Amino acid sequence: MRAVRLNPCPSVVEDLHSIYPALELRGIEKRFGAVHANRGVSMSVAAGSIHGLIGENGAGKSTLMNIVYGFHQPDAGEILVNGKRVTLPAPHAAIAAGIGMVHQHFMLVENFSVLENVVLGAEGGRRLAGGLAAARAALEKLGRDYGLEVPLDAVVSELPVGLQQRVEILKALYRGAEILILDEPTAVLTPQETTQFFQMLARLREQGKAVILVTHKLREIMSITDRVTVMRQGAVVGEIATKETTMRELAEKMVGRAVLLKVEKGPAQPGEVLLEAKNLVVRNTNNVTRVKDVSFSLRAGEIVGIAGVAGNGQSELLEALAGMTAPSEGEIRFRGRYLVREQLDPKARRRLGLAHVPEDRLRVGVVARFSAQLNAILGYHDRAAYNRGPLLDRAAIVAGCEAKMQEFDVRPPNPALRLGAFSGGNQQKLVLAREIDADPAVLLVGQPTRGVDIGAIEFIHRRLVALRDAGKAVLLVSVELDEILGLADRILVMNGGEIVGEVAGAAATEEKLGLMMAGVRGEGSA
Amino acid sequence: MSAPRKLPRWAELGLLPLVNLTAALLLSGLVVRLLGESPWAALKLLADGAFGSQEAVGYTLYYATSYIFTGLAVAVAYHAGLFNIGAEGQAYVGGLCTGLVCLGLGTWPFWAVLPLAVAAGAAGGAAWAFIPGWLQARRGSHIVITTIMFNFLAAALMTYLLVNVLIRPGQQSPESREFGPGGVMPPLHELLAKVGLTFASTPLNLSFVLALLAAGFVAVFIWRTRWGYALRVAGENAAAAGYAGISPARVTIGAMLLSGALAGGLGLNELMGAQHRILIDFPGGAGFVGIAVALMGRNRPLGVIGAAILFGALAQGGSQLSFDMPKVNRDMVVVIQGLVILFCGALENVFRGPLARLLGQREGGA
Questions:
Q1: Which of A41, A129, A211, A314 would staple A50 via disulfide (CB 3.0–4.6 Å)?
Q2: pTM, whole model, 2 decimals?
Q3: Best to test chain B binding among A382, A387, A397 (most B CBs inside 10 Å)
């Protein structure tokens, strides 16, 4: 039977606290071919503390955490747990050293129960029954101690995301984790769930655990962490006590220059209705209703935001509007045309002036193995501008791509480079350039800044506002509340496939939206 | 990430296939050794049989012609993300249509018959590929399964037709009567003689030129037109195709039509060029060799031509080898072909890593 460390002797914990940090990294070096992912990274995390780790995409946070969890081996440098040097050739070695990790994408067997998921890989013997009974007792105690109660016999797929996350944390604690790494843990949570989650983290801290919180949300760093390590381009650019810093300072350290955290924009001047959805119902391939009877309209000169926790029908709504899927009921009117009845495909909709930046850029919006210039014509490839007789006009394609790259500051400005070789932010800028350059009347945008670094976020937000000010309409779907609050003139909140409320952008607060996202009906709803 | 390493273009298209080929030949040499023959002598016989004389070259290119057609067929489907195993059956049915035109219009002048024969072959091959394409696009039946089944259907159909319908009255073997003079593709040595060049008399014929033209057409179509662009987008990323308003279903059907049409070119070489009648099993496995040819040629027209010539050389040099070295029989030649396919296709990544490291070091040191 596997030993489960539940309550380390308090006096020992005290001693260890005073002498050694729970986790210390010294001069970690890691290269992947030409990429120098970690350059002499050192950081130190005390037991009984919450340590933030922030940095832009590609700053080396994930590489570093994967090294600590035994996925990657450092080229140089040492890892010390409680002052003792350890080598971590594989995750099981990290687990044995008391390191647990909760990944951004959960590693759970969906059709197993909570209990089965927790003991998976730590069954403790050939027969399952004995191990399960012992695990049940241990988990109930863990749940009480840390405020992590989960119905142990529930099937994981039927649990809400917040509880699934608890299961992941329980898994780590059950395996005796004293150091807990949480990778972007709040991405899937509502603001209210996030508050609960932070309370739970505080509890872990009280119990003497060391928690490493990897995130790109500055506000979370400020509200919960004790210390914060900032990484840029593979190196640590600062380790500061959270009390002694500000969001602005952290943002500047991350990016390496001053950034605007909030978009400047004047009041909206809404004009005529351009796009109108009426009683849209969208079912997925399993015939599950994902969008329920959604109606709204979008006017020229406004940005309408659709807020909601991921997976509440926003994606399906966006795809139906763009023409990638056909709604089962309802109609979409766009500049006097009936898009559903006329069965217009995405290409035809683009021609009418309805452009679309998809949520999942890499899977849907681009062909990663094609060059940038071929991606810059995706969806517009049969336009006369890019064709000469039966042949594609290569010169025009290259010139078009160069112009877009210049206008949207895509780096490196090399049209022949494979798209997959660009950073997320530059890929997104190219996609935006492609859709905005076609001069659409309405732009549908999903998660415009997902996986995009802060510098590019600022740029993308300014372009969206500029589009609005030019009299176009923007429909913005985002799970980032800050983004919705900063950009939208009107906000629709979706929950369970329905629009549960509408709030004017100026009147919106995080609390108000959070309640609606959790399903509480708000003002303006039916 | 330990994804396949990137090699420079010249190494990817030139060096890597060469290394793979060398490995295959080394292993083949070992097998020849075990049979008690000298590998070096065998290799010399093989090379000599394939390229040692005008006659040898003619036969090699004659075989290569068929492989170019079927290799292109597989390559086009591949770019649309489809694995067309049915080139054999498509070539069979396309050849039937070509043969029927030649039987019916054999008294017409050749230059009048040619376009009709080409069109008939393409149409027949395309029709045979259309059904699996349609089934995949509209019904989700996997194209690998259906194209294999359609090979058997084609074989059964042809056996029936040749035994019961097309057979020349009063003979035993299942063959049609001979085509009229209009249905005979001019041999290349005759065409060359007209411009004053002499070349040995071989089955190599005008369809070799047609195969090269087909390769040129494929190159332009796939990489230079908006339809080729749509085809490649759908093959690389079906979700992105849907997003761009490219219907993956229509691309699937279209790509299979083109693929089948190319496979249908085989009848021009085999029937009009060499046999001058319809006979049983005339594709002779060229449809399957086409898969290996496309694989080895990296699905690019120039690569397909090169790989087709290699496999043509193996076919021609192999028969010479088995003739001169009785211990190395026909089956042994199949083994060598198999090793080439194994190293160039299934194991193509084995030498990629070491090669990349070697080149990387050299570039780093320079």
A1: A211
A2: 0.78
A3: A382
